[in-house]
Specification:
Length: 221
């Protein structure tokens, strides 16, 4: 029988502040790994990234954005053409439908511009809270934290912000991330989860915050 991971010890606030200080020192200006040029192309890329990897999305979007990098061009391109251009991405039919529909909504309701407003963003087809948070953070510099599978894992495994749902982890992080680090917290945590605090075998010996982390079953050196 597989060993069940023990619940993490909750990290102290002072240790959380130190953790972000170290993450910031290692990567002062973290960036999204999705390729984009405008708030609109970012929005489309994030919608396409649901249940897909950034690498996979980045393979598909150059061809798509070469044909349609504005809402008007995307609507003109049409669902059938968008579908063909993103066939390599999971759930491509649904995503093509959503991309065209949200583009039409942007034209109809926002003069073709991506709104800097969570409620307006989440009203768009295919846009949930996580997608809205990414757009607000990356495109507009808002201190939002979009909890994906990596941040959900890091929040729970480290004891930084334990929670049974992404919303619970987000709420926990909102309470404990120091204000000075809120702007980039999303990217520090997602990159940490993607490359260090990995799902199957976390790279604890290479982790700059291992001594602060509440994970009880650390990978040995």
């Amino acid at each position: 029988m597989a060993k069940t991971a023990r619940p993490a010890k909750r990290m102290r606030r002072a240790d959380i502040a130190t953790a972000f200080e170290r993450l910031a020192a290692a990567d002062p200006e973290p960036q999204t790994e999705l390729n984009y040029t405008t708030p609109y192309t970012l929005l489309v890329a994030v919608v396409l990234s649901a249940q897909a990897t950034d690498v996979g999305v980045n393979r598909a979007t150059p061809g798509l954005f070469a044909r349609a990098d504005t809402p008007a061009k995307m609507v003109a391109l049409g669902e059938a053409e968008v579908t063909e251009l993103i066939r390599s991405i999971g759930l491509y039919r649904t995503k093509a439908r959503n991309v065209v529909a949200l583009s039409q909504r942007l034209l109809d309701e926002h003069d073709g511009e991506v709104p800097r407003d969570r409620t307006a963003l989440q009203a768009l087809p295919g846009v949930g809270r996580k997608t809205a948070n990414v757009v607000l953070n990356v495109a507009f510099g808002e201190p939002t934290i979009a909890v994906d599978t990596h941040i959900f894992r890091v929040g729970n495994r480290t004891g930084m912000a334990p929670g049974k749902t992404p919303d619970a982890v987000e709420a926990g992080l909102e309470k404990v991330v120091p204000d000075a680090y809120r702007r980039h917290a999303h990217h520090w945590l997602i990159l940490h989860g993607r490359y260090i605090c990995t799902a199957r075998r976390p790279r604890c010996p290479d982790c700059t915050i291992a001594d602060l982390c509440g994970y009880r079953d650390k990978t040995p050196a």
